[in-house]
Amino acid sequence: MNVRGVDIETMQCAPRDAGAALFPAGDAASEKGMPDESSVRAACAAALADARASGVASVALPAFGIRGGMNAVTSGKIVVQEAIRVARAGASGLRRIVLCCEEPDAWESFSRTVNGYLRHLLDVLIWGPFVTVDAIIEVASGIVLVKRSNPPLGFALPGGFVDYGESLEDAVRREAMEETGLVLRDLRQFHTYSDPSRDPRFHTITTVFSARAEGVPKAGDDAADVHVIAASEIDTLPFAFDHKRVLQEWRETR
């Protein structure tokens, strides 16, 4: 199955027989004694890091830990989680990851676990909910809003989607800079909003931050324009998403 351009598959063979450009010489987790989650995850992550660093297009990994006594379901979940993590990170020449299990008694459970996990990711998890952030930014003259250039149209708080591997705080600072040119300070979490109908495109869960900034905001990214309003204007403007409600609730806490 393909995850961001990387084919992840299972084979009942030794890694050296999987037709991959790179494979570990052995099962590093089992060689260190009774394997646990941390040793299996570390062995798998190290092998995948070697593959990325080597610039190869394909790598074959053993079912780490099984030879040391770990059950096939646990091993399968850990190795496929690490494979997905590397595939989602992108930015490498890796295009194929083969997860190999040559132990006949473990193969069926291992393969079913790996492929079931991948199918759940691609059929269910990949469709959301999606994580977003928004910022209530106060400057000397009022509250900073952007006027959206893409639907849903209307006024909105500066914000957007959290990138993979990015914290909420880093994401809201990045989005504020991209959309308004402002550097945030006194950043604080205000509230999280999760109503499935809050975004007409798909189910998003947003964490709203309050912050202050100095300077004159300038529209950027997908903002058609940027406005600074007084708190008294919140009720009169047409907003996208649930941002009118967000600002009204924020105003009530002041």
Element layout with pairings:
Layout: E1 2-3, E2 6-11, H1 28-31, H2 37-54, E3 58-62, H3 72-89, E4 96-100, H4 104-123, E5 130-139, E6 142-148, E7 155-156, E8 159-161, H5 168-180, E9 185-193, E10 204-212, E11 223-229, H6 243-253
Parallel strand pairs: 2-4, 3-4, 5-10
Antiparallel strand pairs: 1-2, 5-6, 5-8, 6-7, 6-11, 9-10
Helix pairs in contact: 2-3, 3-4
Question: What can you tell me about this protein's structure?
Answer:
By secondary structure, the protein is α/β, with parallel strands linked by helices. The protein has two domains: about 1-125, Leucine Aminopeptidase, subunit E, domain 1 (3-Layer(aba) Sandwich); about 130-254, Nucleoside Triphosphate Pyrophosphohydrolase (Alpha-Beta Complex). The protein is built from six helices and eleven strands. The strands form two sheets. Strands 5, 6, 7, 8, 9, 10 and 11 form a seven-stranded mixed sheet that branches. Helix 2 (about 35-55) packs parallel to helix 3 and helix 3 crosses helix 4 (about 105-125). It starts with a strand and ends with a helix. The mean pLDDT is about 95.
| CATH hierarchy: architecture of the largest domain | 3-Layer(aba) Sandwich
Please indicate the count of domains: 2
Shape descriptor reads elongated
Q: Could you give a short account of the major beta sheet?
A: 7 strands, mixed
Oligomeric grouping of the chains: single chain
Q: In angstroms, what is the radius of gyration? A: 24 Å
- The count of helical stretches stands at 6
Q: What's the end-to-end separation, in Å?
A: 51 Å
Name the helicity range: 25-40%
Q: State which percent range the strand residues make up.
A: 25-35%
Write out the CATH superfamily name of the largest domain: Leucine Aminopeptidase, subunit E, domain 1
Mean pLDDT: 94
CATH fold-level name of the largest domain: Leucine Aminopeptidase, subunit E, domain 1
Low-confidence stretches: none
Strands, total number: 11
Broad CATH class of the largest domain: Alpha Beta
